[in-house]
Amino acid sequence: MNWDETGPETDQPSGPVFDDRLVDAGHLDGEDTAVEAALRPKDLDEFVGQEKVREQLDLVLKAARARGATADHVLLSGAPGLGKTTLSMIIAAEMNAPIRITSGPAIQHAGDLAAILSSLQEGEVLFLDEIHRMSRPAEEMLYMAMEDFRVDVIVGKGPGATAIPLELPPFTLVGATTRAGLLPPPLRDRFGFTGHMEFYAPVELERVIHRSARLLDVGIDVEGAAEIAGRSRGTPRIANRLLRRVRDYAQVKAEGTIDRHIAAAALKVYEVDERGLDRLDRAVLGALLKLFGGGPVGLSTLAVAVGEERETVEEVAEPFLVREGLLARTPRGRVATPAAWAHLGLVPPQHGAKGQQGLFGA
Ligand SMILES: Nc1ncnc2c1ncn2[C@@H]1O[C@H](COP(=O)(O)OP(=O)(O)OP(=O)(O)O)[C@@H](O)[C@H]1O
């Protein structure tokens, strides 16, 4: 059966609310901000994983230092929580330069950008997070600033407006984006170095966890770190967050040292399963399997069944489920893979299995 969309959606989500997600790397709370500052690696040697980006960046920075020049502009792309801000701070530290941190959404007018650029010191690193969300006029001002270290400040309005050129000290722009494809080519081309951050392998996350545990003064054994790493969705921010929750559990319910058993018991309390799925992910998969026989089903129908907004299902839950090979987005709708049935411990219905054979060749 094909569970198609049935016209405009009128139902309001009415089910459980899935906010405050431990496994959502795109959302930061106050505790994250405070603790993350303490856990950030301070130099390239301490920065775990991302071998290729690290090696290339190391060369870029060493060469700039040897020339006594400011480093080339750097673009870092990748999902939230993979270490773009951390790397920008490392770039500044390695260049022995100050750093200014701002973000695309904070720069809505060209004047906002002119004010920042004109107050930079020579060699300073300007970190521009979410660079793809900058306004168009600011973006155009940035082209000239990156290339010629100069901006034209427009004074006045209409026919009487004049452009006053303003020289800037050489600086290094570090742009970060989760969506490199959204950057206009003229902007992308002005970066001397582009690094794409990948999701981390479990062994790399284990190293992140051991390092963070040392800094937080928490005892953890090898298996405890592996248990947390496996549930961290390839993302250091999530690994650090899960570690903090497991630490609380260990302090209250155990002797304080984290082993596999304690990590698993703690994350069961927080409803993060052994593959890193949380309540929202499992609700989406559960609805797809139990209500719609594994699909295909339209996104809006699935969202109503889960009691969530369409965007939340599409942008928050689905990317990870797709990455994990549990859900497929097909032209006919959302479809569960054989791995999804196995993960929830369910058996696909006979007719569903036939349909899925066609889709997955299983
Ligand atoms: N390679 C790494 N080694 C050790 N810790 C890391 C690494 N990458 C990230 N972290 C830790 O993960 C947390 C999140 O990193 P960071 O803020 O740099 O991510 P981000 O990519 O800038 O995220 P966002 O896109 O949301 O700004 C920090 O606490 C940082 O210490």
TrEMBL record:
Record-listed ATP binding positions: L39, R40, G81, K84, T85, T86, E147, D148, F149, R190, Y200, R237
Residue numbers binding Mg(2+): T85
Taxonomy, superkingdom: Bacteria
Chemical reaction(s) catalysed: ATP + H2O = ADP + phosphate + H(+)
MF annotations from Gene Ontology: ATP binding; four-way junction DNA binding; four-way junction helicase activity; hydrolase activity
InterPro entries the record matches: AAA+_ATPase, AAA_lid_4, DNA_helicase_Holl-junc_RuvB, P-loop_NTPase, RuvB-like_N, RuvB_wg_C, WH-like_DNA-bd_sf, WH_DNA-bd_sf
UniProt entry tagged with the keyword DNA-binding: yes
Iron-sulfur recorded as keyword: no
CDD domains membership: AAA
Cellular component GO terms held in the UniProt record: cytoplasm; Holliday junction resolvase complex
Region annotation Small ATPAse domain (RuvB-S): where it falls in the sequence: 201-271
List of residues binding DNA: R310, R329, R334
Pfam families, A to Z: AAA_lid_4, RuvB_N, WHD_RuvB
Keywords of this entry: ATP-binding, Cytoplasm, DNA damage, DNA recombination, DNA repair, DNA-binding, Helicase, Hydrolase, Nucleotide-binding
Signal peptide stretch: none
Documented EC number(s): 3.6.4.-
GO biological process: DNA recombination; DNA repair
Region (Head domain (RuvB-H)): 274-362
Cellular compartments annotated: Cytoplasm
UniProt subunit comment: Homohexamer. Forms an RuvA(8)-RuvB(12)-Holliday junction (HJ) complex. HJ DNA is sandwiched between 2 RuvA tetramers; dsDNA enters through RuvA and exits via RuvB. An RuvB hexamer assembles on each DNA strand where it exits the tetramer. Each RuvB hexamer is contacted by two RuvA subunits (via domain III) on 2 adjacent RuvB subunits; this complex drives branch migration. In the full resolvosome a probable DNA-RuvA(4)-RuvB(12)-RuvC(2) complex forms which resolves the HJ.
Function text: The RuvA-RuvB-RuvC complex processes Holliday junction (HJ) DNA during genetic recombination and DNA repair, while the RuvA-RuvB complex plays an important role in the rescue of blocked DNA replication forks via replication fork reversal (RFR). RuvA specifically binds to HJ cruciform DNA, conferring on it an open structure. The RuvB hexamer acts as an ATP-dependent pump, pulling dsDNA into and through the RuvAB complex. RuvB forms 2 homohexamers on either side of HJ DNA bound by 1 or 2 RuvA tetramers; 4 subunits per hexamer contact DNA at a time.
Free-text comment on this protein's domains from its UniProt entry: Has 3 domains, the large (RuvB-L) and small ATPase (RuvB-S) domains and the C-terminal head (RuvB-H) domain. The head domain binds DNA, while the ATPase domains jointly bind ATP, ADP or are empty depending on the state of the subunit in the translocation cycle. During a single DNA translocation step the structure of each domain remains the same, but their relative positions change.
Family: Belongs to the RuvB family.
The protein's name in its UniProt record: Holliday junction branch migration complex subunit RuvB
Organism expressing this protein natively: Streptomyces microflavus
Gene (name only): ruvB
